[in-house]
Amino acid sequence: MSDDIQEKIQRLQSIEQSLQSFATQHQSIRSQLLESESALRELEKGDDAYKIIGSIMVLQPKEKLVSDLKEKETSLRARLTKVQNQENGLRKEAESLQKEIMKVKE
């Protein structure tokens, strides 16, 4: 096999590892989003709101917690979009490399 094909195969393997990493990040961000959405729903139900700081719970103004959670959601959604865009770019690159490798093997 030529060096060019070997390099493409190695690049493809590297992309596949990166895609696995992105999948893990994607799942983690989605989990955090679900947790944040659940916390917001719970805040709507009650009057008192507590925030866990270290190993204690501290009474906080409900509006402050809602604001913090909405800010966190915005940040998480931006991170999710970034991860998805990077993931899509790598998938396209992987598909292109696979086609090039398959052409040479034919």
Task: Provide structural commentary.
- The protein has 106 residues and is mainly alpha-helical.
- It has a single domain, classed as Orthogonal Bundle (Helix Hairpins), CATH 1.10.287.
- Helices cover 82% and strands 9% of the residues.
- The chain has two helices and two strands; from the N terminus they run H-E-E-H.
- The protein has a two-stranded antiparallel sheet.
- The radius of gyration is 22 Å and the shape is rod-shaped.
- The model has no long low-confidence stretch (mean pLDDT 92).
List keywords for this structure.
106 residues, mainly alpha, Helix Hairpins, two-stranded antiparallel ribbon, 2 helices, 82% helix, rod-shaped
Reading side by side through the largest sheet, how are the strands ordered?
A: 1-2
Strand runs, count: 2
Structural Rg: 22 Å
CATH fold type: Helix Hairpins
CATH class membership: Mainly Alpha
Main sheet makeup:
2 strands, antiparallel
CATH architectural label: Orthogonal Bundle
Strand content: 5-15%
Q: Percentage of helical residues?
A: over 70%
The number of distinct helices, counting runs of at least 4 residues, comes to 2
The tally of domains stands at 1
Oligomer: single chain
| Spans of at least 5 consecutive residues with low confidence | none
User: Helix-strand pattern, N to C?
Assistant: HEEH
Q: Decide which structural class fits the backbone.
A: mainly alpha
- The end-to-end span amounts to 13 Å
Question: What is the mean pLDDT?
Answer: 92
Q: Which of globular, elongated, flat, extended, rod-shaped describes the shape?
A: rod-shaped
